[in-house]
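Re: weekly structure request thread

Next one in the queue (486 aa):
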Amino acid sequence: MQLDNHILNQFLSPQKSNRLEVETLIKKVINQLLDFLSNASEKPTNPALKYLNTAHFKIPEFSQTHNEIQKNLQELYDLSMNPANPKYIGHMDSMPTLWSVIGDFIASALNNNVLSLEMSPYITQLEYSLTKQFASLFALPETAGGVMLSGGTLSNLQALLVARNTKLNIKNGNIFSLKKEPVIFTSEHSHSSIQKIAMMIGIGTDNVIKIKTDINSKLDICDLEIQINAQIKIGKNPFAIVATAGTTVSGNVDPLIEVSKIAKKFDLWLHIDAIYGGAVIFSEKYKHIIGGVEQADSISFNPQKWMYVAKTCSMVLFKDFSKMVENFRISAPYMKEQNSYINLGEINVQGTKYAEVIKLWLSLQSLGKDGYEKLIDYSFYLAEEFEKEIFKRPYLKMTSKPEMNILCFRGEPQNIKADNFDKWNENLQQYLLKQTDFFLSLPKYKNGLWLRTVLLNPFLTIEHIKTLFLNIDNYEKNQSVNKTTH
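Done, posted below.
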């Protein structure tokens, strides 16, 4: 039996027999993609949702032609969210660096499994090196190190699994030997992944104690200490605090130094979720915002956000890497044992491991620390100008004092009832999308709907911001006129 050429030509021949045909195909596909991306400013930020039934995505009986496949790709481009458009400012979706896109292509083409040194000899060493360097950037000690994962939830999961095993002296993950229920403390505005993780590590969502926040959405230290004492008093077993450096909705930072003192006082593991805000370590001017991050036992960080690396790309760092290994490692007999490098699959919640690190590595090479500093500082510049525009308008209110490039605000005009604020802002979001193509998200926060902006796009300008606020003014005036006439 022998495969026909049509089947074999769906792969790049290692004997070069179809290289020219593959090169031609890649050029056609890349040109189509570039046509879309290079005109992204002219494409909708958030295309109208088109519902498609299962038959639309029917698996074909036989192979499709390249032209048919490209036709389907065009539909994919046209119906997808468009974060490359500078007016897309509603979520933490950055446009990726060119080299991270190329890195994704390279990682997929190489198809090395970063499960073991044997299966990914170069990439394993690269991951060890870069996570060690990031630990240093976060000012963790020489004993620190980390691993890379596919997303922030997995990074938080591994951190809290290790925290549970370490602080509660759990062997083999067996929580049934515990006499007291374990408890985690975190801000009321922390990421929802913390509750998911509580289910996964067997402590239950009820044992995630939410701590009150102050007027600026920061964890309240007094309430934290009160709640820890209260849980001890009723016979539970606190073992970890999760602080946030860059909350999802408002971009605020918990008082990390004060939280670390509480963690030490009660001998609790301190995990800092710096998934978003960790990128400020590249800015000399702004890295003080996450001062105290070096006190963490573990830190989660996503280069896929403010470092402009294509999804997915996350890491979790541990102050004492050897202790993490001791309290988490599961050896795999099907992998060759190593003396110089522990196989990453043995110390990672993922089995098969995609080479996330290549995208990060190439982005770092293409921009350097200096380039990242300029990108971070530019985001802060835009945020400062955006905040000025909000303060010029008495009918606009912010959730809290912004600390990063995330600003969360809403309209509360005096001429409408408070019960109608949510509807007013929901309509404003739709008005901006339909009339101007600006996309702002509309999260539920502090019992109301708010407009959230994340000023990430490097092609976003002050002119864009001024245009946005002129249109917000137009909406407010039209609403006032309509209310008066009716």
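The chain has a mean pLDDT of 95. The domain at 105-363 is CATH 3.40.640.10 (Aspartate Aminotransferase; domain 2).
Next request, please.
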